[in-house]
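Hi there,

I know you've been waiting on this one. I reran it after we fixed the sequence typo, so this is the corrected version. Both the input and the resulting structure follow.
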Amino acid sequence: MARRKRDYYVVLGVPRDTSELEIKRAFRELARKYHPDVNSDDAGEKFREINEAYAVLSDKESRSRYDRWGHPDDSGGGFSAVVDAAQDIINDVFRRRKSKAKGKDIRYTMEVSFEEAAFGVSKTITLPSSESTRPRELTVVVPAGMKEGTVKTIKGEGEPGKGGAAAGDLHVQIRIAEHLRFRRDGLDVRSELTITFAQAALGDILEVSTLDGHVKMRIPPGTQPGGVFRIRGKGVPQSSGKSSPRGDHLVQVQVEVPTELTPRQRELIEELGRTAGQDPSNPGTPGKRRLLDRVRSLLDE
């Protein structure tokens, strides 16, 4: 026994007094949902039922007959032709959709300086020509605190799409140029400072280069080689804005040992060794006093 057909208005989910436009809109939505090309489930019977309902209700004469007499005998050739026509229409819609292809993405490497990556910058780049585009300029905004290798994606700035489809995207990879003095450690900036033996022993106040220019830093007496001094708030900003938290600037101190001495310098160093209890003729003799005390004792004589 054949299964009784459902009401065509129920199939399309529209009231009986609905307009032709609403019938068409309902059909398109259901056809997209249940078309075999997009629905992996077994929706073939459901799709055929939707097409059949639309074929009848979209035609004024067949709709009028349906409203009066109910379901027709679907064995008639005329009705089957209408159903086939509806099937052809929806298939054509999906073919056109498949012919549309999103444009290809573009990749671009943009180099910025150490300072530009720290504080942010706006740069104009030139994208090269392709088969479908000419060379064009585009402004890329790099926010403060940008890290090496970060990829910034700009939607719709890639290759144009085909058949009216959306354009691809532009992926800009940020490359930070090496700095002569600074290197980055998270939000902190590190650098090295070479001082003399006398400055390490007696202390000094020196100018140090930072992202904000030169600042004065105190070297305390008795500073040891490799010591690290922290200048707070002179590192990389966490984000854009003057009130954004910043990292610190870390300065590692290296003590310069002279490779050539004048006779007077050698005499003073030997005197320093003797006051420290070291025999210049026996370099292995351990000193008995701190380095600072040795230097002060020599200078006070």
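Quick highlight: The first strand starts at residue 106 and ends at 112.

Best,
R. S.
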